Amino acid sequence: MNINCQGEGPHLSKQLVGNIGLYYVCYELSKKGWNCLPTSRNAKGIDIVIYSQDAKCKYAIQVKSLSKRNPVPFGSSDELMGDFLVIYRDAQGEKPELFILTKEEIGPEKLHKSERDGKIFYWLQPGSYEEHKDCWDKIRE
């Protein structure tokens, strides 16, 4: 962790921003009664498996953590691997923002596509996810 000597907070690496988002989302889901199992970090795929107290309802969640208001990168795939996407934004701020989207709400028409060096990349613009702020009621039994 690099600490700026001019009194500013630490500069967080992408991995730390990812960890903050992952564990904060687990914290929020646990408060709502879900059992949360974070998966191995930096593994491709889902980030959290959640299940209800009676284990009858299970979901897979992908978490995308951002340090500021940026597009959400999807890499080379235009498909969400989980049942839900939770975007955690403002990792270094006092009050993070959370946006909860279902797989159906992230259709190919909402994703932007670009090509660089023969590779295709997808991302979701902030305007496409900001209307889903704090929509935790989507994740229910």
What report would you give on this structure?
This protein has a single domain, classed as Trna Endonuclease, Chain: A, domain 1. It contains two helices and ten strands. A hairpin with a 6-residue loop joins strand 1 (2-3) and strand 2 (10-11). The chain has 141 residues and is an alpha+beta fold. The N and C termini lie far apart (40 Å). The relative contact order is 0.16. It has helices at residues 14-31, 126-129; strands at residues 2-3, 10-11, 35-38, 48-51, 58-66, 72-75, 84-89, 97-102, 111-116, 119-124.
List the helices and strands and how they pair.
Blueprint: E1 2-3, E2 10-11, H1 14-31, E3 35-38, E4 48-51, E5 58-66, E6 72-75, E7 84-89, E8 97-102, E9 111-116, E10 119-124, H2 126-129
Parallel strand pairs: 5-7
Antiparallel strand pairs: 1-2, 3-4, 4-5, 6-10, 7-8, 9-10
Overview features:
141 residues; alpha+beta; Trna Endonuclease, Chain: A, domain 1; five-stranded mixed sheet; three-stranded antiparallel sheet; 16% helix; globular; disordered N terminus
Percent of residues in helices comes to: 10-25%
Q: Unreliable runs, pLDDT <50, ≥5 residues?
A: 3-7
Largest sheet: 5 strands, mixed
What portion of residues belong to β-strands?
A: 25-35%
In the CATH hierarchy, the architecture is 3-Layer(aba) Sandwich
**CATH top-level class:** Alpha Beta
How far is it from the N-terminal to the C-terminal residue, by CA? 40 Å
By CATH, the topology is Trna Endonuclease, Chain: A, domain 1
What's the Cα radius of gyration?
Answer: 16 Å
Order of strands across the widest beta sheet?
Answer: 3-4-5-7-8
